[in-house]
Amino acid sequence: MGDSAAAASLASLGTWDVPAGVASQLSRIMRPDDANVAGNVHGGTILKMIEEAGAIISTRHCNSQNGERCVAALARVERTDFLSPMCIGEVAHVSAGITYTSKHSVEVQVNVMSENILTGTKKLTNKATLWYVPLSLKNVDKVLEVPPVVYSRQEQEEEGRKRYEAQKLERMETKWRNGDIVQPVLNPEPNTVSYSQSSLIHLVGPSDCTLHGFVHGGVTMKLMDEVAGIVAARHCKTNIVTASVDAINFHDKIRKGCVITISGRMTFTSNKSMEIEVLVDADPVVDNSQKRYRAASAFFTYVSLSQEGKPLPVPQLVPETEDEKKRFEEGKGRYLQMKAKRQGQAEPQP
């Protein structure tokens, strides 16, 4: 679907004020291989579609003026909530709009709606904000300038600038605390961090990459969600679904031929939710000049569901080491902060 349909879709939800001419939409039906055994579509599948829509519109915009050709690379995904499960047979409509541009980055905001094509019922399932940077096709280490957009309201640019400065600060803070690695433990006890922690090792191939050889952000996010889902399922041994994803930061590009290790560990449990930290490390095995490095990191939140789709109590995590206890308290702080924010939004306005 085209720009006008996407802009109308975004505007109809009253979510974002999108400048004219910088919106687009893509749609596809959900298949059995997109979902878990209970028929719920994987959060990673939705994240991959969100990133594809963002990459298309930001790359298109960054090449809208004469100059050096480029491709938009994903730098960060803000927190996104999975508002409603999507099921096999439903159609996902992903609407993307550019809402702010800085000198070297593009903010893209996305809505995902599910449609039951038998009944015509539609519902909002996701809202997400992504940040892209344009990389030169001649030199992927060179960041190009972004063409400006024309804002429909005077306040729009100032509001976008505030969001830009906030995410820039958070990215810097996250990078400083990203030295951890997940180590295996022999014969761990149930409900401990070690019991459910999981890792996936993946060789980056051509199908994972852009035309000039680095991994699509959506591919990385899909693998991260897969590992987080394994951790959650091991911990509670029930059907689990993605409830939300905290900010995903992409610290460095992952090139074709790298071996990536995606590691996940439980950090916090409330009565009905689980927070899982996911770390992505890249090992350039064919390049001896570069060492293993941290490529991406995020926190995923999962909930446990019964066969009828009702939330179930979650077994409480048993942190053992001082580091695990510290991460548990940090996770509890994030949980309480988000809970207070949701309650504040739910209160009726005077």
TrEMBL record:
InterPro entries: Cytosol_ACT, HOTDOG_ACOT, HotDog_dom_sf, Thioestr_dom. Residues 309-350 are annotated as: Disordered. Keywords: Hydrolase, Serine esterase. Pfam families: 4HBT. This is Cytosolic acyl coenzyme A thioester hydrolase isoform X2. Residues 323-333 have a biased composition (Basic and acidic residues). Residues 20-138, 194-308 form the HotDog ACOT-type domain. One of its GO terms (molecular function) is hydrolase activity. SUPFAM superfamilies: Thioesterase/thiol ester dehydrase-isomerase.
